[in-house]
Structure formats: structure tokens, C-alpha cells
Amino acid sequence: MTYDLDPALRAANRTTLADYSSTHFRWQVHEGVGTIMLDRPDRKNPLTFDSYAELRDLFRRLAYADDVAVIVLSGAGDNFCSGGDVHDIIGPLIALPAPELLRFTRMTGDLVKAMRACPQPIVAAVDGVCAGAGAILAMASDLRVGTARSRTAFLFTRVGLAGCDMGACAMLPRIIGQGRASELLYTGRAMTGDEAVAWGFFNQLAEPDQLLDTAAQLAQKLADGPTFAQGITKTMLHQEWSMSLDQAIEAEAQAQALCMLTEDFARAYHAFVAKQRPKFEGN
Does the residue 1 lie in any domain? Predict the structure, then answer.
């Protein structure tokens, strides 16, 4: 006997985002790849209160999206993101009392939580200025393609703030190492593109005019893969930070057994036997 979810229940838990209309950035979906482009190139694509919130909400919705397997995150023009807008965010923050400031910092942290919680891998395409909250967006992505001319700066100490913003002290050392992360977070200096790829922050470098194509090709390769299993991989990469080795091994045993129940696992086996390339469908 087979069972099927009530259609209304399926509809309540799944959605499509190809027709999503964004207000504070550009959004499109093509062949399973959703592209977010921050689109204020005249000011190096800064974030505002509203764009923070819309990005957070979109990443939360992606957990239920049927038509998006991978995300590309980029900036229009020659820069990725200059961080919080000086006039729209930094200026107003000076006048706020502590409770409202905490609401703001929790909201920005919620964006990172939403990025890490969405099952789709996120590929950041980083060119030019990648500073402050922009550097955090790149850091919170799963993979990063950069350019040699890019400059990634966690510059919070340069404006009188701590370097521990939006999870930086937890995540950056895991990506580039404690010593290198400490230098960047204490000094606020910019990490060059060559340093970023040598230190493992960037997965690869591309020429500026090839950056988006390179990121899109990487994203499409992931989108063509076993997307359910990739979502499990992302979940385990995130959750195992706080696990002991024994806990991690047991969690991975359960995760792998779950993936062995998928049709994609069977497809891979039958394709191997037939000496063909598997065609994954994400189920």
C-alpha cells in the first residue's frame, strides 16, 4: 500500500519562486538556479534596512521552493557590496536606543541564519568592493568565486565596532584559519583576491568579465546534481560545528541512510552499471 500527502498539505509546504517579484534587488530563476543581484551600482550596492529584511525573508522562503536548487549571489557593476548604507543605516543607528539597536543587530544576524538554513548551496560572485556586511554575505555563502581585483574587508573595527558581527568570529576562522581571521577582524584591512584564493576564502578566481558566467556554471553543475543529497550535505556542514566526533559520525550515518532511500541513489547505480552518466532529479 502506498500513501500520498493530501494535495492541500503539499501545496502548503511547497512553493515556486520563479515569479517572485523583488523590491530591493534583482531576482531571476533559470534552470534551477536562482540569481540575486544587489542592484545599486552607483553606490557599490549597499544594504538598507529594507534590503536586509527582504533578503532574510527570501532565503527563508527558499526552504520551501520547488524550482530553485542553487543560488548565485552577486552585485551589479564592478562591486559586490559595500555593506550597510552610510546614509540609510549608519546615520540613523547613531540616534537609536539600545533596545532598537539590538533589534537591528538581531535582524542582520537572522539574514545569516536564513542563508545557512536554506537547503540550496549559495555561490557568491565577488568582484571589487566586498566590505562590512557585504563581506559577511560572501562569508555566509557556501562557495565563493572572486576576482584578483576584489577587496574583502571586515572593517567593523574601523568604524568603532567589534569584529564579531553577524557570526564573523564563528565562521571566518573556520574558513581561513584562526590567525588569518584574527588579523582581518582586528585590523579591518582588506583581503586581496590573491590572498582570498590562497587562504581558501575564494574557491577560485575568474576574470572580471567572466565572473558571473563562472559562478553560473558552477551553480548549474550543482543544480544538475543530486540536490536532495546536497541539501543534506549543507545541513551537516552547518550542524556538525557544534558536535563531537562521535555525534558527527552518528549524524552522518543517519543522513547517509536517508539519502540511500532516494531515487537519485538508485539512478546513480543503474547509470554506473550501464556505463552512462546519471541524470539526477532531486528525489
Answer: no
Under a CB-based contact definition with an 8 Å cutoff, are residues 132 and 78 in contact? Answer: no
Structurally, the chain folds into a number of domains equal to 2
Same domain, 57 and 145: yes
209-266 residue pLDDT tens: 999 999 999 999 999 999 999 999 999 999 999 999 999 999 999 999 999 999 999 9
Same domain, 203 and 263: no
pTM for this prediction:
0.92
Residue 192 sits in the same domain as residue 249? no
